[in-house]
Amino acid sequence: MATLPPVGNAGDILLRLNRAHEAMHEEINAHQAACNAALADLWKKHAPFITEAKSVFLQVQAEAYRAGFSDDDINTALPMCD
After folding, report:
1. Is residue 81 a contact partner of residue 74, using CB atoms and an 8 Å limit?
2. For the CA atoms of the chain, what is the radius of gyration?
């Protein structure tokens, strides 16, 4: 196994590495918090429209079932739906 060359003032390097690592994680956490806040704001803004559209979609889907359409018929008409 290869050995590392001697490093002068190794304690300082490890301290700087530790601080940089902590700063990196602080930035990652701040970024994640900002993303979560932005997503929450978007959801608050668009949730009524999304849920209303889904409600209308489910009503129309129920009418299609009542009219005699099968899952295959609906999936053929709407291939992107699960």
Report:
1. yes
2. 28
As given in the structure block, the two tokens for residue 7 are 């490093």
75's CB contacts (< 8 A; 6+ apart) are 81
Angle at 50 between CA 56 and CA 61, to 5 degrees: 25
What is the DSSP-derived secondary structure letter of residue 9?
A: T
Instruction: Tell me: pLDDT of 2 over 90.
Output: no
Mean pLDDT of 8-21: 82
What does pTM read for this prediction?
Answer: 0.54
Q: Is the pLDDT of residue 77 over 90?
A: no
- What residue spans of 1-82 are helical by DSSP H? 10-66, 71-77
Query: Which of 77, 52, 80, 53 is CA-nearest to residue 65?
Result: 77
